[in-house]
Amino acid sequence: MSKKQFVLIMTDTQRLDMVSCYQDVGIKTPNIDALAAEGVKFNKAYTVQPVCGPARSAIFTGQYPCINGSYTNCVAPGLNVRTIGQRLADKGVYTGYIGKWHLDGGDYFGLGTAPEGWDPDVWYDMRNYLEELTDEERYKSRQTSTMEKEDIPEEFTFAHRCASRAVDFIRGHADEDYFLVVGFDEPHGPSLCPQPYASMYRDYDMPKRPNVYDTLENKPVHQQVWSGPRRFQDREALRLNAWALFGCNSFVDYEIGRVVAAINEQADRPAVLYTTDHGDMLESHSMYAKGPAAYEEICHVPMILRGFGKGEIDTPVSHS
Q1: In the predicted model, is pLDDT for residue 158 greater than 70?
Q2: Is 52 a catalytic residue?
Q3: 27-36: per-residue pLDDT in tens?
């Protein structure tokens, strides 16, 4: 009997139109595209709440944030809420987590310790990453401007260190049942990435969708406040030149490719589910980032499952 092996790959802040197998607007993601070609592409997948922590709480508990208690960033689910790690570990499945967690009630980077249900020897979150860096490197790691001053080595990035650990895990546990999560922070800002990705989209402008011209008249007041001065800018003159985000988007696709290559080495390839937690407004509706709204740009997410047939599914699905 083949082993039960499953790898969940997550990115952070990846719009549907930043994944070329969904919408090819000039931003390339060849490794994610290859997963889609071999698996099932969900065309109408949605996050349950377009904010990092709450979105992840739904994925890892199977409950909506309003039920599990993680209704905003840096608020952990209730102590009576079990994660998939705990449930699978109770069934004898080896569980490993590598990457951004954002569900322990700590700050953005996490506490650096494995929650119940996840192997502490495998655990590696953003706090662990920061602890590997010097004070100067920590500062550099959080500044997009670092890429203006120097070329970032691939090995310096969180994405690369996560991918390397994932590759080692997959190769080292080929004979065991396991559930592995690889949770990249990228392309979330500061979107640090090496060359050629750091300069790949310097002169690229994302095509403007009609929603960019929405200046929020007769829309909720909190959205107008969120927009700030953006809603009064000349929307015709606006350029969607988020070069760092787009470059890091292609970079994390490259790192995903490294993980998938290790999976493909296995005689019985582990199943793979790829998705992201939410998108980014990128000036749609005169807003930026993500938050308390239900617009397509931040709620409609890519999701691909390889290992259970091929095709496309148009039925709406969600992370919970």
Answers
A1: yes
A2: yes
A3: 999 999 999 9
